[in-house]
Amino acid sequence: MTRKERLWAVHKGEDPDRIPVKLWALTKNQKLLHPDYQRIYDLAIEKTDLFGSTGFPFNIYHGTKTENVYSGRVEKHSDDWNAHITVMHTPGGDLQSTYLSPTKAYAGLTTEYFIKDADDLKKILMLDYEPYPITDLSHYEDKLAEMGDTGITHIGITHPAYMLYNLMGSELLGYLLYDEPELMYEVVSVFGKRLNDHIKDIIDAGIGKYGPFVFAYVGPELFIPPLVSYDIFEKYCFDIDKKNHDIIKNAGGYVWVHCHNKVGKLIPRFADMGVDVLNPIEPPPAGDCTIEEAVEAAAGRITLEGNIEIADLLYKDKDYICNFLDNTVRVGSAYKRFILCPSTGYMEYLNPTEKFIDNLITYVNYGVELAEKYAK
């Protein structure tokens, strides 16, 4: 099989020649954060099963109605941080957020969210909304050509519940789910309908003429325990997302979902909602199930992706990595619907240690070797 054929096999629930090996966030021709990543990039481009990604214009809050919605400014917060202050102008009044971007590091943080209370959330629904027209598929066609037989391309979409979270953060989310359940569900339902229409527009534009397609998104991890109850997951994720999945599946497409955290009890529910690939199944202690338990829960109904914790690649010795890989690939190969993958991107650290680079190289080389071994 080509790498493309192998990945399509596991997305479709068919038997691959061997399980795919993925290095998350590796894409062709990407900019490297540090020269030391060049070795792992070159190796992974040669050996791993590649994923490309693209998307279509979409804004779940106001769509194309961007004129006079935002204004902003940048202020010096300290020697290490700049404050990016954004004001959203709504018919009900202004909303403000603040994001601190580092001057000497990589990751920033939000210190102020647009939504401070229920009245602010109502203002979001006052914004005029008009969907982006989907008329040009050329960038998707270009991405497919770039990938060739080396891998497949995911179509990225947003997640209604996650976009609700992005307006307010986890603390206020928890309070408003309890204090304002009807308002919260109204907003996520509106978002869900807008995404529903967006997906239909992409399909109606003819995405299927290029062959099988995959829609991919992140977000459910913020709507599972311990932040919220399983009942909230059912209402805000399962019920809303399944409507979108049904549209995709009925059109012959596939669904890839990213959900960190303890998902052991939810694997069957993700299968029920039409998810074809669930990423990134994490072993304990970050996750709540071993690879053996995850496979048992999946019961052949869903492809599992992951089981390699990025922290292990950062800190563990080579012998530990090799032993863990051996068990993971052995069990995953017997299951067949499995993609070996770290729990997060390989290039998340500005100054990678030599140990991290060495462990990444071990992961790719030994992971592919084991995948071929256990396929026999």
Features:
single chain, 376 residues, alpha/beta, seven-stranded parallel β-sheet, four-stranded antiparallel β-sheet, 12 helices, 11 strands, 43% helix, 18% strand
Write up what this structure looks like.
The structure is a single chain. The protein has 376 residues and is α/β, with parallel strands linked by helices. Helix content is 43%, strand content 18%. The protein contains twelve helices and eleven strands. The protein has helices at 3-12, 37-47, 118-124, 138-147, 160-179, 181-204, 230-250, 267-272, 291-298, 310-315, 318-335, 354-375, and strands at residues 50-55, 70-76, 81-90, 93-102, 109-112, 151-156, 214-218, 254-258, 277-281, 303-308, 338-342. The strands form two sheets. The protein has a seven-stranded parallel beta sheet with strand order 1-6-7-8-9-10-11. A four-stranded antiparallel beta sheet has the order 2-3-4-5. A hairpin with a 6-residue loop joins strand 4 and strand 5. The longest helix is centred in the middle third of the chain and has 24 residues, at 181-204. It starts with a helix and ends with a helix.
